[in-house]
Specification:
Strictosidine synthase conserved region domain-containing protein; 4 helices; Neuraminidase; mainly beta; five-stranded mixed sheet
Length: 310
């Protein structure tokens, strides 16, 4: 390409990608019904990311931008502080400044170990953490793999039968606040990893990924899904059986996937910016919910199905 055109072309491409990222996703056969969803406002906080319920059905719990994990205790009590990922809380005041995320922590993916009640946390800056059922200050689980520190810990899932945690590190170059650069740069330094709770070892399962994001284990534990956000697709890694170790595209999507969560039927809900997509265990799109005008649901980071509700 002629050098006099290369810079304008690069700027145009970047602007196009950013515009696409923040535009509603339109999927054939989708249902325009998220505009009527009831909002459960997270008060005095911004940036709720992941949702999780404990083994007693309590919650939901969610992590917010100032490093806290909040628990919903009903209409009368509302949201209360359950845990924090960083002990450096003196500067973590509200309204919160994103430039303090690396100090205060930024909890993203959340998962309960239903066997013991521990809550595992993927903190974008502080790595993999855990806090007991009583809450409080989370303790460190892992911060690096193969000598390379985590740079953007994103999401996780737990295989309670095998005692392992699967999680993603979205990039070894870009931090969470640089996610737009991560998308448009073509960065492929992301990793999918496994933490063994008995040996306390971290193993890299997949590397060279383009913005690995959400993680979900299949109902029978035979395979693992990981959202490769920059490539607008979800990958499937077989963990057991004759295909063990093999990876392939599970589904291509018309947008950037975020977190993945499995329902009780073994199906998967994928957050697709302003849409919610339900997939079969074979990657077939079963249902898509949208708010075309973005009146109610402007940004969706995760969809959790519980007792017939989303």
């Amino acid at each position: 390409m002629d050098s006099k055109y290369s810079l304008p072309a690069a700027i145009f491409l970047t602007l196009f990608c950013i515009f696409t990222l923040f535009s509603p996703v339109l999927v054939a056969g989708s249902m325009h019904n998220l505009h009527s969803a009831r909002l459960l406002h997270v008060t005095r906080a911004i940036g709720p990311e992941s949702l999780v319920f404990d083994s007693h059905g309590g919650g939901p719990y969610t992590g917010v931008a100032d490093g806290r994990i909040l628990k919903w205790k009903g209409k009368k009590r509302g949201w209360t502080e359950f845990a924090v990922t960083s002990s450096n809380r003196s500067q973590c005041v509200r309204p919160f400044a994103p430039k303090l995320e690396h100090i205060c922590g930024r909890p993203l993916g959340l998962r309960f170990d239903k066997k013991n009640g521990d809550l595992y946390i993927a903190d974008a800056y502080l790595g993999l953490k855990v806090v007991g059922a009583a809450g409080g200050l989370a303790t460190q689980v892992a911060t690096e793999a193969e000598g390379h520190p985590f740079h953007f810990t994103n999401d996780l899932d737990i295989d309670e039968n095998e005692g392992v945690i699967y999680f993603t590190d979205s990039s070894t170059v870009y931090e969470r606040t640089q996610y737009t650069l991560l998308l448009v740069s073509g960065d492929k330094t992301g990793r999918l990893m496994k933490y063994d709770k008995s040996t306390k070892e971290v193993k890299v399962l997949l590397r060279g990924l383009a913005f690995p994001n959400g993680v979900a284990l299949s109902k029978d534990g035979s395979f693992l899904l990981v959202a490769e956000t920059s490539n607008c697709r979800i990958l499937r890694l077989w963990l057991h059986g004759p295909k063990a170790g093999k990876v392939s595209t599970f589904v291509d999507l018309p947008g950037f996937p975020d977190n993945i969560r499995r329902n009780s039927y073994g199906q998967f809900w994928v957050a697709l910016y302003s849409s919610a997509v339900k997939l079969s265990d074979e990657g077939e799109i079963l249902e898509t919910l949208e708010d075309f005008e973005r009146k109610t649901m402007k940004n969706i980071s995760e969809v959790e199905e519980k007792d017939g509700k989303l």
